[in-house]
Write a structure and sequence with these properties.
With 169 residues, the protein is mainly beta. It contains 1 helix and 11 strands, in the order αβββββββββββ.
Length: 169
């Protein structure tokens, strides 16, 4: 159910974004300015790795801190995947922007380099934070593997910047 709500929210944002106009407005002024250099298509992604539990990462005035990671025995009987091991990640998000910020779609979790979907376990967080405020949240993932990484990139971020937290149990 929470995946459906997240999907609907994301779909709504994409539809509203697609309805916007990116056509430049005509002006009567002559311009001597040189065109801006565009970023090359194959530009290297900006990735900060090797953050640990307790570290903070900030992108676009949104700061996330991974507070705690624990193995959980809790499972949702309606989940398609029933892993042997699952992690519950406690985090804090600080919204230092001037607008409300949606929380819940900012993380990707990788097990041995393969992306896995979140689990509806614990107090899964899909919410919004008012400007200048913070909140605590939780997210759970299957963790049947050796190398566990949590990737943080705000859902509304346009650039390639992201942070990777190494998850050690």
């Amino acid at each position: 159910m929470k995946k459906l709500i997240g999907f609907l929210f994301l779909s709504m944002i994409l539809i509203l974004t697609a309805c916007g106009s990116d056509t430049p407005k005509a002006t009567n002024e002559a311009s001597d300015a040189k065109p801006e250099a565009k970023e090359p298509v194959n530009a290297e992604k900006e990735v900060s790795k090797n953050l640990k539990i307790g570290d903070s990462a900030t992108i676009d005035d949104v700061t996330v801190t991974i507070n705690k990671v624990a193995i959980t025995d809790e499972r949702n009987e309606f989940e398609e995947v029933t892993p042997e091991r699952a992690v519950l990640i406690d985090f804090t998000v600080e919204n230092n922007t001037d607008a409300d910020y949606p929380v819940g779609m900012d993380f990707s979790f990788y097990v041995d380099g393969k992306k896995v979907e979140s689990m509806a376990v614990g107090n899964v967080t899909f919410d919004a934070i008012s400007a200048g405020r913070s909140m605590d949240g939780q997210v759970a993932y299957p963790a049947d593997g050796e190398k566990l990484e949590l990737e943080f990139k705000p859902m509304m971020h346009i650039g390639n910047e992201k942070y990777i937290f190494d998850i050690e149990l």
